[in-house]
């Protein structure tokens, strides 16, 4: 059985810092999206996507709560805006996240009269969504041989934060975005060391939690446990981890916390989950730099853990068994 470090999934994660550096260098696209969304007539940014792309929208929303004020941000899974089901308001501006640019629900929203002009964050500017967008934040993907979006997810988050920094004139967040490639590179090194040192694990389910902006990382972490290791998992805000998410916990379950610094709420949640009999792991990375980068800096550890668990379960973590079923729904290819 190949080591998780030999998978395309991990190799592509190691290339995330270079991907982020190239993505951040496309200031023309970032500025165009910021101009559209920061227009005085925009009262609310409706940010949407599916799965990891939706979690990038959540990262934007959480960042908007944690720094300088700007337009209201509403993060929604794309299914809520599909087929004209969403009630748009005057002053709404759509921000669509889709690496492929072919997300079925977003295309249906556009066809049903979603407000224009709209902006997209995508790795595929010539796609259906990219070609219809009035402003495009371009994500650079160095390679993708694994199904799981590593560079795509991280690029989506980076562009979202860069756009928000530009809209709000937040110099601190702008500096954090520029530092992100180095921060993630350090997180990759720490993640590999951490995952190799973990004890033998064979969990049947998992919970991931984080505070503030790390909640977006927790959502992505739970998705990775499901997507890569095929483990039922839930991603929650830290206090929810100490309450509703801990109810069914016991031996054979794994809990992953994503601290971004000293956090008494995280400490309490870890202790409560451990007392239930779960194995509690504290992932590295979240304390590297501005905490609004947490979805990026915790990502390598969550990939490493999921890849290790998946390979130990003899799964193909690069080409999971669910791939065709997913595309049949997400892109309407059935």
UniProtKB/TrEMBL annotation:
GO MF annotation, one: carbohydrate derivative binding
Protein EC: 2.6.1.16
GO biological process, one term: UDP-N-acetylglucosamine metabolic process
Reaction equations catalysed: D-fructose 6-phosphate + L-glutamine = D-glucosamine 6-phosphate + L-glutamate
InterPro entries in the cross-refs: SIS_dom_sf (IPR046348)
Principal EC category: transferase
PANTHER family the record matches: GLUCOSAMINE--FRUCTOSE-6-PHOSPHATE AMINOTRANSFERASE, ISOMERIZING, GLUTAMINE--FRUCTOSE-6-PHOSPHATE TRANSAMINASE (ISOMERIZING)
Name the record gives this protein: Glutamine--fructose-6-phosphate aminotransferase [isomerizing]
